[in-house]
Structures are given as C-alpha cells and as structure tokens.
Description:
Number of strands: 0
CATH superfamily of the largest domain: MFS general substrate transporter like domains
Number of domains: 2
Helix content: over 70%
Order of helices and strands: HHHHHHHHHHHHHHHHH
Largest sheet: none
Amino acid sequence: MTTTAHREELSPLRIPAFRALAAGRLIDMLGNSVATVALAFAVLDLTGSLTYLGLVVGARTVANVIFVLFGGVLADRMPRRLLLVSSTGLAAVSQAAVAAVVLTGIASVPLLVVLSAVNGLAAAVALPASAALLPQTVPEGARQRANSVIRLGMNAANILGVSVGGILVAAIGPGEGLAIDALSFAIAGLCFALVRVGPHTTSERSESLTRQLRDGWTEVRSRDWVWIVVLTFLVLNACFGAYMEVLGPYIADTSFGRRDWGFIVGAQGVGLLFGALLAMRIRVPRLLLLGCACMASIALMPLMLAVWPSTVPLMVAAFAAGLGLDVFAVAWDTSLQQHIPEDKLARVVSYDILGSVIAIPVAQIAAPPVVHAIGLGPTLWVMTLVVLGCVLAMVTTSGVRSLRQPGH
C-alpha cells in the first residue's frame, strides 16, 4: 500500500479534536487493562477467594448495567466533553482510592465492592458520551476511518496493558498497578478536555428521564437493523463470554494447558488489530451487511473446541474471530453515527451497551450446569449453531441488507 493511502487512512488524526479523543480513549484503555490484572491479584492477595474476586469484579459490571441508560440520557442532554471529563475524573478518584486502601493495607471486600461500583458508574456515563462524541470531531465521510483508528488504538492498548499489568504486578505489586490506572484516568481526562467541538443538537431537558428513555427505545425499535442487531448480540455475547471465559479455560486446563490458552487469547487480540486495519480499507456500499456477515467467524471457536481442541487450530479460530469482531464493530459504530439523529445517538448507544453485556454473566453462570446436563461436546455444538443462527437473522433482515453508506 502506498504512503499516500496510509496517510488517507490515518487522516482523522490530522483533526485536533479527534486526535485528543483518540488519545484519551487509548490511555483510558491502557490503564484499565493494567488494572484488570492488578485488581484481580489485589483481591486474591487479600482473600485468596475466587468468590470474593467475582463479587468485586461483578460490582463494576452491575453498576454499569444499572446506570448505562441514564448515562445515555445525560450524553444526549449535556455537553459530551463535559461528561467525559467529569466521569474520568470520578474514575481517577475512585481508582486512586482503591490503590490507596490496597497499598496501606486497609482494604476490605465491602470497601472494594463499593469503589468498584463507583468505577462502573463512571464508565456507564463515559461509554455513551465517548461514542456519541466521535461524529462531532470528524466529517461524515471520515467516520469509518475514525472508528477504525479508535479501535486500532484501543486494541493495541488492551494487548499492551494486559502484558504490562502482569509485569508490574510481579515486579512492584498490585497496588502500584492500580495507582497507575488512576493516573491514566487523570491523563485521559486532560485529553478529553482538549476535544474542542461545537455544541451538539440536544434532547429537550424539560422532559422526564422516563420520557427520554422511552424516546431512545422508540428510536431503537423503529429501525429493524438496530433492534435485530442489539437482540442478536445479546445472544452472541452471552455465547462468546461462556466459551471464551468459562469453557475454553476449562478445556485448556484438562488438555493442552494454560500457557497455550494464553497464546490462543493472544491470537484473538492480534485478530482484533488486523480487523481494525482491514476496516480502514474497506469501501463497500453495504458496510453493516458485511460487518454482520463477518460475525460468522466467531462460530469457529466453539466448533474447534468441540471437534479439534488443540493449540494451532484454536489460534487460527481465535484470530479469525478477532478479525471478524472488529470489522463488525467499525461497521456498527459507523452505521449508528451516520443514521441515528444526533440528539438520540447516545441513548441508542446506551441501549446497545446494555443489550451487549446484560446476558454475559447469566451465560457464564449457566454454562457449567448445561455441560453437566447434556455434555461438553453437545453444549459447544449448540453454541456454534446458535451463533450461526444469529448471524443468519442479521443478514436476512431487510434493514441490514438495504442500509447503505452515504454517497454510495
């Protein structure tokens, strides 16, 4: 590919507002990835209990689910830059408190649960605001490239952060890793403060929260390509969470080993990076249809776990899954930004986030009993067929098939 083509793909970075937004999200992801490792070992050092670890980590997810719709309403009513700066400030303070109680030895499970929930609340406000702010930073024709750049940076930060987190925890301890995460939130907040954009079209502030939530749901329900994708991803993410975070590690522990499972997860991360790079270069009129079709790649993981549970084929399947996931993510984000009214975008994003995460813990808890009831192989085959059925539902939806990129 020519130097000119590379410059064109990275052209959104020439825009100061987008550059600041991309930097903030990258730094935020890097710190969070370090904290994921650091917090896990901090809780295990404190309690030695997987149950307590689940409570602390789960508190963040529960708070995120409870408050994400409220975060979407706020992001449609208020300046999104202000919300991002405020929410990252709250996250910095809460994570600094976590680091402080761990480093001083006064940490307790109830205290960590509360602080983790505060961090989840901050994320619930930040996620819809950051997604809805992006279209304000770049012209319409540059949004696909902008989303690809964001995804590329966040995937790279995630891979680097997990590795750095492991090194830091081993070298200096989990408390210091958590302090670094608090600092990363503060730096990300400074980056978000530099996102200089004009005011966006806002929803009516005099309307009640219930009315604004209902308006957001009406926007989702009125477009079959939105509600079908949100509904199918409720199922897809549930399956993905069950086989990647429960069944896969179990199979690895009883066959090819934990180290190789690390290679497999790493291959998925590399696939995500290549997916973002590929999404930069795709120029098709029906971008969402292509993205939905690419989701068939995630069926390879449960299929290989069922029929060929060894390292190399699983690495190939994980790479393909990561690539397909990121092509879809760019196509989905771009489609929402181009076709949802500006004053309702954050609420639609919040419904999407809610649908994406709410069923994951249910599936993770339900997977072991299902395996005991029908067997590991049949469970994985059912997951494979469910994934393919969801993809078929998306690509046969009239709205998905007919949605076109502006200018095509």
